[in-house]
Amino acid sequence: MKSSESISNYHTRIMVIVNHIRRTKETLTVARITKNILRSLDSKFDFVVVAIEESKEVDKLTVDELIGSLQAHE
Length: 74
Hints:
4 helices, about 65% helix, mainly alpha, about 0% strand
């Protein structure tokens, strides 16, 4: 994620990449996508990432739920 990028723009960019990967027939689980999103966020979201990991089961979190939580904190 770029430091000046909004969560909405980042989400769009990530989903384009995910769709390209899925077209190559590679299997991407929702858990893998959400973990990669959390890991790649800008450092200004560090406290939000910790809060999400502590309060929710990341393996069961959908991408839309994650993005909603990040946009609420943005």
